[in-house]
């Protein structure tokens, strides 16, 4: 069944709000519920959006588990069709009318993606090449079909995309209820419900916290999901990064199949920022036409903030439109700035500032303080240090937040620079080196860098959780590079290193034992020590750029 839609005032208003400058195709049509057969007999459903006279228009394939109506139908179907593209918007297996069962997310996307491309190539309206687009799970489905027809796959837009399900479940090697359990609770049985459940996010927050509060999570997770989810149990049970579960769903090698142009889009507060920067670096190492757009966005904000960026890229690659910035591969908007910067390439700054830890301070000195000293705190997994801002899956509460309330807790230690005598621009990964002790055989340390304004507002810029496994001595040398960031820190502001051992429920409270954290039945408070001074060098090294 086909329906014709005319661009109207509401669509033009949406386009303006998304900074899309024009709608060159005023009339579009849609063919709904097209059947696409898979090799095992399942039939997946798709909607085909296109200009009314656009049977030879470039094809953009988008595969999603979140349904084809509502926001996704408008953004990826109708809006892209108004830009002159044919869009095949397909529902993944077991979702929104497609056959099969969505019981092991991510696991069927390679076969189903290849079968979809084979079907696409047999259609009379297929022009011989295609592009793909989308973020998060949509991005993973693009990686899954990367080698289906490399010579015909001329463009891909990978927005906020994981390379592996381990990026979802165990970021930084610590299980993340705030990402994996939240997503499973929202989407595990009915992915399209993830959008509807956003409206009841407060209730889900409470269920999530109750599930995390009482170990073992391997049993209590159903407080949040309300049903058993075998795929989530696989994620919970496999802490080992070499597990076959992760290898089967690791698509980092798929990047080697791409031959066309690739646009990687990311946010400084996105949960998959590390993965996005790895994608760009891996593609550039092969001399692929790769582009990178990064801005001050959370996971949910990347897609909505880059719609025009996506359209301009597709128009350039598939329609021959002039490039927006010839020769400039990187579009970068730093934290603390509203100005977009165009760069030849992405590379961390070469100049660095090094600060040494002393009691409560970061001093710019070549050597640590002469006196041996230590900062101590008690971490109680029964009253864990809470998450505040940063890279969250939830649409609420992420990004840069005022950390003063958090920093007032007894289980958070801070170290400050003096007010900066001049503005600095951070670009790259901040490195933190210190010696950390505990009275428990295993624990973790959470490191965060904040920008502190003259009025005391402490805004988080970047952070990382570092698991500390059994060392035999309960003493660890921590050498952690935080995710890359670009940030403008103004004259008179201070930089702050924040050290704790938790960010719950973003990360699971550490039990203080060598038992797997998702299986542990008991959790123990830990007396933690940050050593600094003579004999215990502790430093923060910050890459500094000239402009942003």
Describe the protein's architecture and organization.
With 548 residues, this protein is of the alpha+beta class. It folds into four domains: 1-128, 3-Layer(aba) Sandwich (Rossmann fold), CATH 3.40.50; 135-163 and 257-345, Rossmann fold, CATH 3.40.50; 174-245, no CATH class; 351-545, Jelly Rolls (Sandwich), CATH 2.60.120. It contains 16 helices and 24 strands. It has helices at 9-17, 70-82, 109-121, 137-144, 165-169, 177-187, 193-197, 201-213, 217-220, 222-225, 230-237, 244-248, 273-285, 299-305, 307-319, 404-407, and strands at 2-6, 27-37, 43-51, 59-64, 86-91, 130-132, 153-159, 261-269, 290-298, 330-333, 340-343, 351-358, 361-363, 373-379, 413-416, 424-428, 431-438, 443-452, 458-468, 475-481, 485-489, 494-500, 526-532, 539-545. Helix 3 (109-121) packs across helix 4. The model has no long low-confidence stretch (mean pLDDT 93).
Strand order of the largest sheet: 1-2-3-5-4-6-7-8-9-10-11
Low-confidence stretches: none
Q: Which CATH class of the largest domain?
A: Mainly Beta
Oligomer: single chain
CATH superfamily of the largest domain: Galactose-binding domain-like
Q: What is the number of independent domains?
A: 4
Percent strand equals 25-35%
Distance between the termini: 51 Å
Radius of gyration: 24 Å
Largest sheet: 11 strands, mixed
Query: What's the overall geometry?
Result: globular
Total helical segments: 16
Mean pLDDT score, rounded?
A: 93
Just name the CATH architecture of the largest domain: Sandwich
Helix content, binned percent: 10-25%
How many strands in all? 24
Secondary-structure content class? alpha+beta
CATH topology of the largest domain: Jelly Rolls
């Amino acid at each position: 069944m086909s329906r014709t839609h005319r661009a109207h005032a509401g669509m033009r208003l949406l386009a303006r709000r998304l900074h899309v400058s024009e709608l060159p195709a005023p009339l579009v049509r849609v063919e709904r519920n097209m059947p696409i057969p898979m090799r095992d007999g399942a039939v997946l459903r798709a909607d085909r959006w296109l200009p009314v006279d656009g049977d030879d228009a470039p094809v953009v394939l988008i595969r999603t588990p979140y349904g084809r109506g509502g926001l996704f139908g408008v953004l990826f179907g109708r809006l892209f069709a108004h830009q002159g593209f044919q869009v095949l918007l397909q529902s993944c297996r077991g979702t929104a009318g497609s056959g099969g069962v969505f019981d092991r997310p991510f696991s069927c996307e390679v076969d189903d993606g290849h079968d979809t491309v084979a079907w696409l190539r047999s259609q009379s309206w297929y022009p011989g090449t295609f592009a793909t687009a989308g973020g998060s799970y949509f991005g993973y489905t693009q990686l899954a079909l990367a080698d289906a027809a490399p010579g015909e796959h001329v463009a891909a837009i990978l927005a906020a995309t994981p390379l592996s399900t381990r990026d979802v479940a165990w970021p930084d090697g610590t299980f993340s209820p705030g990402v994996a359990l939240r997503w499973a609770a929202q989407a595990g049985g009915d992915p399209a419900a993830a959008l509807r459940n956003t409206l009841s996010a407060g209730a889900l927050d409470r269920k999530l916290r109750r599930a995390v509060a009482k170990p073992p999570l391997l049993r209590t997770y159903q407080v949040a999901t309300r049903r058993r989810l075998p795929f989530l149990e696989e994620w919970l049970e496999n802490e080992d990064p070499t597990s076959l579960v992760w290898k089967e769903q690791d698509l980092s090698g798929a990047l080697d199949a791409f031959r066309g142009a690739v646009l990687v889009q990311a946010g400084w507060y996105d949960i998959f920022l590390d993965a996005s920067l790895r994608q760009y670096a891996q593609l550039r190492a092969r001399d692929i036409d790769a582009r990178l757009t990064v801005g001050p966005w959370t996971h949910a904000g990347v897609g909505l903030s880059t719609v025009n960026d996506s359209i301009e890229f597709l128009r350039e690659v598939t329609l021959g439109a002039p490039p927006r910035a010839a020769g400039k591969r990187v579009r970068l908007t730093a934290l603390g700035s509203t100005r977009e910067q165009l760069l030849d390439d992405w590379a961390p700054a070469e100049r660095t500032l090094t600060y040494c830890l002393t009691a409560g301070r970061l001093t710019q000195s070549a050597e640590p303080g002469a006196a041996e000293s230590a900062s101590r705190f008690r971490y109680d997994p029964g009253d864990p240090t809470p998450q505040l801002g940063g890279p969250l899956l939830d649409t609420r509460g992420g990004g840069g937040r005022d950390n003063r309330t958090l920093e007032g807790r007894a289980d958070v230690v801070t170290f400050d620079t003096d007010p900066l005598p001049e503005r600095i621009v951070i670009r790259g990964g901040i490195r933190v080196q210190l010696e950390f002790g505990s009275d428990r055989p295993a624990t973790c340390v959470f490191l965060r860098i904040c920008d502190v304004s003259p009025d005391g507002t402490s805004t988080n810029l970047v952070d990382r959780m570092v698991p500390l496994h059994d060392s035999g001595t309960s003493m660890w040398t921590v050498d952690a590079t935080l995710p890359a960031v670009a940030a403008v820190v103004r004259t008179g502001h201070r930089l702050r290193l924040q050290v704790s051992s938790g960010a719950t429920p973003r990360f699971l409270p550490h039990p203080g034992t060598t038992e797997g954290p998702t299986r542990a039945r008991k959790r123990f408070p830990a007396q933690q020590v940050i050593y600094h001074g003579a004999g215990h060098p502790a430093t923060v090294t910050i890459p500094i750029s000239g402009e942003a």
